[in-house]
Amino acid sequence: MARTAAVVGGGIGGLTVAGGLIRAGWRVSVFERAEGPATTGTGLGIWPTALRALDRLGLGEAVRAAGRRQPDGAIRRPDGSRIATIDVGRVQRRQGDPVYLVSRPVLLGLLAGALPPGIVHYGVAVADPAALRAEYDLVIGADGIHSTVRGALFGSRSGLRYSGVVAWRGSVALDLEAGGETWGRGRKFGLTPQGPGCANWYATLRAAEDYRPPAGDLAELRGLFGDWHDPIPRVLERIEDGGVLRHGLHYLAPLPGFTTGNVALLGDAAHAMTPDLGQGACQAMIDAVVLTEAVAGADDLASALRRYDRLRRPPTRRLAAASLRAGRLSRSTRWLPARDLAIRGALALASPR
């Protein structure tokens, strides 16, 4: 008899693990609280490690075909002078694949399209996973940074921490040849080309957790970044009213484990990290593939889940810590020459993952 799995959360990690388990012969149900598939979202950088994981599920080529290669970029100062070059081509030279830019809705569509009809149940919020644990052989918490499944397993030990940073993001109608970041004192502005005539932007500022711009988000952004180098002022001019999403950046304190009993966590539910390394989606997909391969043919599910935990918890913990350090470095308020030297050294020595 086929084993059964309930996946809580129909995002990138949840859809990936559902597809993997179905390919392995499992019967899978995905429960997603949203009323339907996402239709909006900014671009994601899909790194070679994630592409190779998707290759093992037969999805890598579809993602490559749907994306565009990320061009080289730069880290600059507000006056436009260059701090360091972001040599994305180096990733391909070392790992055989470039970084591909894919919008979130397109990626979700590819992952959902690989599933048989009726697998994803939209508009279903799981308040307590206990009933699922009794009904299914395996319950997977892929329900994001505010995971209900994680809270049920670990309670107060799974609390989120505020990074000290508020972020804005959105997209504008603008052709952009290359992206990158601009670092000021305690704030930064980033740009990524999403496709013809469309660019993603984001901005961060060191601020209290309850920060609210007194004159509104758009006025605040123009006041903070309006005199920075081109094309930042043009981006700010093209942001439409209502086209700004603001939120505090939080990260998850390290968990004692990603599994308990017949429950496994993946993605942001397991290791929510700040976005400074752009690895959230990639790590969720890698989690999903590793979990699939651990449990697919295992006679002992408990041992298989322990194997998944051993394989994924240490590297994601290191990556989350590195992302936090990178964010703090980019928003330094003093010793800026030392900051610039540090990032040039890090980019020169780091081996892309």
From TrEMBL:
N-terminal signal peptide: none
GO molecular function, one term: FAD binding
Keyword Oxidoreductase appears in the UniProt entry: yes
Entries under InterPro entries matching the protein: FAD-bd (IPR002938), FAD-dep_Monooxygenase_BioMet (IPR050493), FAD/NAD-bd_sf (IPR036188)
Pfam families: FAD_binding_3
Keyword Oxidoreductase in annotation: yes
Domain FAD-binding: 5-72, 132-315
UniProt entry keywords in alphabetical sequence: Monooxygenase, Oxidoreductase
Protein name from the UniProt record: 2-polyprenyl-6-methoxyphenol hydroxylase
Organism: Prauserella muralis
